[in-house]
Design goal:
- The longest helix has 27 residues.
- This protein folds into two domains: 168 residues, Orthogonal Bundle (Vanadium-containing Chloroperoxidase, domain 2); 123 residues, no CATH class.
- It has twelve helices and no strands.
- Helices cover 74% and strands 0% of the residues.
- Helix 4 packs antiparallel against helix 10, helix 6 packs antiparallel against helix 7 and helix 7 runs antiparallel to helix 8.
- The radius of gyration is 19 Å and the shape is globular.
- The relative contact order is 0.13.
- It is mostly helical and 292 residues long.
């Protein structure tokens, strides 16, 4: 433990305004917002089927990571050691493992599996981004070395495992909605039975998005059938990203003050349910209707 704290202190000893901003930028690559940006671009413009697999593997990985956080309840370095400072706003959740590292390593692994042989630069970029996120999380005082290392291991393991699981459905991947919804309901029931719903905001966000995206994808594939390659001029893609992304951000931040924070099922679950349903179903339906 001491050497982990010493490592953070060594990193923070070089702290200055430029490095602080730079490490916040690096940390961004492990956020849900960055994942959402990548996922919706893939879903609306490149490969819906792969984006669906990516989204499910990500959400399942985030859910298991949060279960580990709740189980271990490890205090973050800036709260545990007075010599460690939080550079920027401190995270309120538990420390072990690093969710940012799990996110970026999972995303990098899945995209490398899909496109790495065709574009050799992709795995290199993925490794670089993952390392930068790991270092930044320690520099910012949010995680120990063991947190980010476990996040790395978990992200790779979850990505490979869930990618294999979803591949078993082959061209009927939309039917994963059944075990997905069952799993989500069981998870909510367990959290409710343990009295942990109010303390599991990240989990509620993930479960809400999980159910909505899978249901939305099922409906879209069965009845909407939006062909992302039919209108393939550059401005079609630009409009999809501009309109779809704009509405997604508007929903994320616009619904926040409207839904009571004191009721997590509304503030977290419902908000992310609406966002994911927009991304998976409503946006493609509109894109098809206006022919972009």
């Amino acid at each position: 433990m001491d050497f982990e704290v010493d490592l953070i202190r060594i990193l923070q000893a070089k702290s200055n305004d430029f490095l602080d901003v730079l490490n916040h930028i690096f940390s961004f690559f492990g956020t849900e917002l960055f994942f959402m940006m990548v996922a919706v671009v893939l879903y609306w413009c490149i490969d819906k089927k792969f984006a669906y697999r990516l989204f499910n593997a990500y959400i399942l990985g985030v859910a298991l990571t949060n279960v580990m956080k709740i189980s271990f309840k490890r205090t973050r370095p800036f709260n545990a050691y007075p010599e460690v400072k939080s550079i920027g706003d401190g995270e309120e959740s538990f420390s072990f493992p690093s969710g940012h590292t799990e996110t970026v390593s999972s995303l990098s692994t899945l995209i490398s599996i899909k496109y790495g042989k065709r574009f050799r630069i992709i795995p290199v970029i993925g490794i670089l981004l993952t390392l930068l996120v790991m270092i930044s999380r320690m520099y910012l005082g949010q995680h120990y070395l063991s947190d980010v290392f476990c996040g790395l291991t978990a992200g790779i393991f979850f990505a490979v495992s869930f990618n294999f699981l979803l591949s078993l459905f082959k061209d009927k991947e939309e039917w994963f909605v059944i075990p997905a919804v069952v799993l989500a309901v069981i998870l909510l029931a367990v959290l409710g039975g343990l009295g942990m719903l109010d303390a599991s905001e990240d989990m509620l966000k993930g479960v809400g998005a999980f159910i909505a995206f899978d249901v939305g994808y099922f409906i879209e594939k069965k009845w909407v059938r939006y062909d992302i390659r039919k209108n393939s001029k550059w401005w079609h893609y630009a409009l999809r990203i501009l309109i779809g992304g704009g509405v997604t951000v508007a929903l994320q931040y616009g619904l926040k003050p409207l839904l009571p924070e004191s009721i997590p099922m509304l503030h977290c679950f419902l908000r992310y349910f609406i966002m994911a349903l927009w991304a998976a179903l409503a946006a493609p339906t509109i894109f098809k209707g206006v022919k972009i």
